[in-house]
Design goal:
Blueprint (H helix, E strand, L loop, with lengths): L9 H12 L1 H5 L16 H13 L6 H4 E5 L4 E3 L7 E2 L2 H4 L10 H12 L7 H8 L5 H6 L8 H7 L9 E5 L7 E2 L8 H10 L11 H6 L12 H13 L5 E5 L7 H12 L2 E10 L5 H11 L6 E9 L4 H7 E2 L3 H14 L5 E5 L10 H14 L4 E5 L19 H13 L9 H16 L4 H22 L3 H4 L4 H14 L10
Parallel strand pairs: 1-4, 4-6, 6-7, 7-8, 8-10, 10-11
Antiparallel strand pairs: 1-2, 2-3, 5-9
Helix pairs in contact: 1-6, 14-16, 17-18, 18-19, 20-22
The structure holds iron/sulfur cluster (SF4).
Iron/sulfur cluster (SF4) binds next to helix 4, helix 7 and helix 8.
Length: about 500
């Protein structure tokens, strides 16, 4: 670390060192940074940022200072999506709402970065860098919400409070859906079900309310005062002008009064560099959709851009099975109403979470999205295809090779739109192409495949019982795969059976 650059008083340094070397650090194994020879042929901009970051230290990342996700429903915070969230201490929050973001843990991680050592929680980035590639540390630090603040971050050092410029917040876990890959931590409906029937008989117990309780991750009861939300509103007048990216997630945000309070506040202030976004399942009552349209129509001239992120993975009854609570026809109607009635150009981004059950209807979904691009050219309509990694047994890698034909057909369709009205961009096509690469290259060994298939059967067998659904009627194309998974599950329940040993 170039000590003179950072305004860390001796006292504060000792305090941070104490924290770093304390109990927390024992979980955080320090690793020395190898000299990275970047092979990446990325744009010069990111490479220039890399060099600037490296001049401070080989592990310095602006996201650790400027980006935050706040889970206000249970009092957790994290600096970016790649790191695990940690609990916010109520003690400091009383006097300083900025502790929602600037926790002692984060300050300690910042200190380590300034010292040039790698926080273990950032392993996602180190693994890319160890392959000689650029990582999100570089890409995030190069964004418009980070790079302009480079000098003020350096000046703040590890000790000072800093205002984030990129914020994602979840006020509540209230939700009307129980998507198959969600959990009681994020959906009140899931919580109701888990409390009534217990957790699913699968290996991953992270969604089990007993585990959540042990980790203090249970959402706070809705009828009690939530000190994290109170702190947020105290912080808000200072926070709002600093924000470039601000996204409300949930639960279902349109069911939370705090979402509407944000809309009202934004309509009365002006922050012309703000990209404001809401994640919605768009499965709420028409009156709430109309309220959304009305509030969005009050924002031109107040913010830079509004984005509606909405999750949909496939079409029809298969989509309804995956995102339990969804009425597919009502969803289509709601989205089309927003596109027709919002008066200024906004962005609607479809989050097509690619999972083991979503591939069959992928092309039909893309055809509908393409028709929207053609019919509503005023708005920017995009589709992203994030790959589901967890729960692992719902990821596409579990499927036989034959399922990749559905992705190939989807890519063919997307390519056929090129050069015509409503075309899919190269970026959108590459995102779907990535799915194919993952299916072909990330193969599972025999033991892992069997273990995942056992979970697959146990999950959906129980899912059908609890939710009165019927897997094989909804997904007849999976009959052989499902029966094989069932056989493994039956064998696994036998004493001393080791299914991966031939
Ligand atoms: S180094 Fe990577 S994982 Fe860590 S905060 Fe930065 S972007 Fe996130």
């Amino acid at each position: 670390m170039r000590g003179s650059l950072f305004l860390i008083s001796f006292k504060a340094e000792q305090k941070l060192k104490g924290f770093v070397e304390g109990e927390e650090l024992q979980k955080e194994q320090e690793t020395q940074i190898p000299q990275i020879q970047m092979k990446d042929s990325a744009a010069g901009w990111e490479l220039r940022i890399r060099d600037r970051l490296n001049a401070v230290s080989g592990s310095f990342c602006l996201a650790k200072w400027l980006q935050v996700t706040l889970h206000l429903h249970n009092g957790f915070t994290q600096s970016c999506h790649h790191v695990k969230s940690h609990k916010i201490s109520l003690k400091e929050l009383d006097t300083n709402p900025g502790f929602l973001h600037n926790t002692y843990f984060k300050r300690a991680m910042r200190y380590k970065m300034l010292q040039g050592s790698r926080p273990k929680e950032c392993q996602y980035c180190w693994s890319f860098e160890d392959m000689g590639r650029l990582s999100d540390r570089h890409y995030k630090s190069a964004t418009s919400w980070a790079e302009p603040y480079f000098d003020s971050v350096v000046e703040a050092g590890a000790e000072e409070d800093i205002l984030p410029t990129s914020l994602e917040v979840s006020f509540e876990s209230s939700c009307n859906f129980m998507c198959m890959y969600c959990s009681p931590q994020f959906s009140s409906k899931w919580m109701e079900e888990a409390l009534k029937f217990g957790w699913y008989p699968i290996r991953d117990q992270s969604g089990n309310p007993n585990v959540l309780k042990r980790e203090s991750r249970l959402p706070l009861p809705k009828n009690e005062v939530n000190p994290y939300i109170e702190a947020f509103w105290k912080w808000w007048p200072k926070l709002n002008p600093s924000l470039h990216d601000f996204r409300i997630t949930g639960g279902e945000p349109l069911l939370s009064p705090h979402t509407w309070r944000v809309f009202d506040s934004l309509a009365e202030s002006t922050n012309l560099h703000l990209n404001f976004a809401v994640n919605s399942n768009m499965g709420v009552a028409p009156a709430l959709v109309d309220r959304l349209i009305d509030r969005v129509n009050r924002l031109p001239g107040r913010i830079k851009n509004f984005t509606l992120y909405t999750s949909i993975d496939t079409v029809g009854e298969q989509a309804e099975y995956i995102r339990y609570g969804l009425d597919y026809d009502a969803y289509v109607e709601n989205v089309e109403r927003v596109l027709a009635r919002v008066e200024w150009p906004i962005t609607v981004s479809f989050m097509m979470t690619v999972n083991a059950l979503s591939l069959l209807g992928m092309e039909s979904l893309l055809r509908w999205i393409h028709s929207l691009k053609v019919r509503f050219p005023k708005h920017t309509i995009v589709v992203d295809a994030p790959l589901l990694h967890n729960p692992q047994f719902m990821a596409v890698q579990i499927l036989p090779d034959s399922f990749s034909k559905y992705v190939e057909e989807s890519i063919r369709f997307m390519n056929s739109t090129r050069g015509k009205p409503g075309e899919f961009s190269v970026w959108e096509i590459l995102r779907v192409d990535r799915v194919l690469t993952a299916m072909k290259s990330e193969t599972l060994d025999r033991k892992e495949r069997i273990l995942r298939q056992i979970d697959f059967y146990r999950m959906f067998d129980e899912y059908d019982r609890r939710r009165n659904t019927n897997f094989l009627q909804t997904f007849p194309q999976y009959k052989e795969f499902y029966q094989q998974s069932k056989r493994w599950a039956k064998l696994a329940s036998m004493v001393r059976f080791r299914p991966w040993i031939r």
